[in-house]
Amino acid sequence: MYDTIRLVKEGTNYQSFVPSLVSNYKEHITEDNQYFSGTIGTGQKVFVFNDKVMFEGSISKYYLGDNIKSIGRSDTQRAIEHLSDTLQVNFIDSQVKRVDAGLSIDTQHPPKAYYSLFGVSERYTRNTYKGSLYYRLGQREKIFYNKLADAKAKGMFIPDFLANKNLFRYELRYKRKLDQQFNKAEILASDLYNEDFYMNLLDNWYKEYLNINKMATSQINPDEIKTPSDFTNHILKSAILASGIDISEHLEQQMNQAKAIGVFEPKDRKYYTRTKAMVNKMLSSGIQSELIQELDTKFKNQIQFYR
Fold first, then answer.
1. Whole-angstrom distance, CA of residue 51 vs CA of residue 68
2. Rounded mean pLDDT of the chain?
3. For the stretch 256-272, what's the b/e string if a residue is b when 16 or more beta carbons lie within 10 angstroms of its beta carbon?
4. What's the CA gap between 188 and 38, in Å, rounded?
5. CA-CA-CA-CA dihedral for 185, 186, 187, 188, to nearest 10
6. Residue 193 banded pLDDT, cuts 50, 70, 90
7. Which of 204-218, 225-239, 249-263 has the highest mean pLDDT?
8. Phi and psi for 61 in degrees, rounded to 5?
9. Are 52 and 117 in contact (CB under 8 A)?
10. Rounded distance, CA 119 to CA 288, Å?
């Protein structure tokens, strides 16, 4: 479940002993600060300031050696206890400043084959970058990517039974202001393996996946076609899906161009939002794509398993 986390333990005197416990030790001196940095485990970062020590990196890689597998509640607790023993710092009551929740599923096709079926997610900005699909919203983001390709690029050992698999990874990343996002005074490392917090995070991870509009198949659905206008929309949808373009990116580009030349102005700028909603409704209505059905089933099974 967990991948990258950022833990901050406030206190004093850490600079007197923590730097000697890390690898690749470096001292940094700036105009208003002096701090130390180093690595631990399989390359996770440790920063030691005058008044705090910070751990940042994949808790899964730190404890299990890689993040191809997902780390659950029990292993997360053991990992944080091991980190505390290794650095001689009690990280159990440290503050969590970032947490990534993610799971990988084995799919029939490479992950990129599914991206064009993912539409808008309300309030999020959608974009693709280096073979990954991102949805960004202020302090958090959703990301879909090829976990096996990522692992190979980072030089991780790939077991033989995974060598020819398609590992579709979905992560929900809480990157800042976790207290506001979880409506708690603070998030502590011990919360990560608290059952209620863990299950709530797992529910949020799944809900955020469901909240993304998915493109329907272009197959004719008699229940949806009652008028010539309905059939016209079906033909347009079929043509769009058959083109192979990423409709969400294309739609965003067209909207930006329309805004730049003032297509609806001075009538009503809300026309842009309404047009976008109508297009997405047309593309997401009808019979669900087999590829989306595959993802829905496998992600749902993951949730049930991890409970």
1. 34
2. 88
3. eeeeeeeeeeeeeeeeb
4. 23
5. -130
6. very high
7. 204-218
8. -65, -35
9. no
10. 13
Per the DSSP assignment, residues forming a β-bridge with 214 are 118
> Which helix (H) or strand (E) covers residue 78, if one does?
helix 73-87
Quickly state the pLDDT bin for 85 (edges 50, 70, 90): very high
Question: Tokens at residue 255, please?
Answer: 């909207």
Q: What is the pTM of this model?
A: 0.81
Please give the Cα distance from 232 to 268 (Å, whole number).
26
3 state SS of 215: coil
Pull the structure tokens for residue 282.
Answer: 């047309």
DSSP code string of 114-177: HHTTEEEETTPEEEEETTEEEEEETTEEEEEEEHHHHHHHTT----GGGTT--EEEEEEEE-S-
Q: Can you spell out the DSSP letters for 226-291?
A: -SHHHHHHHHHHHHHHHHT--HHHHHHHHHHHHHHTTSSTTT-THHHHHHHHHHHHHHHSSSBPHH
Percent of the chain with pLDDT over 70: 92
Measured between alpha carbons, how far is 232 from 235 in angstroms, rounded to an integer? Answer: 5
Per-residue pLDDT for 148 more than 70? yes
CA distance 287 to 121: 20
Cis ω before 266 (30° cut-off from 0): yes
- Strand-strand pairing, 140-146 and 52-58: unpaired
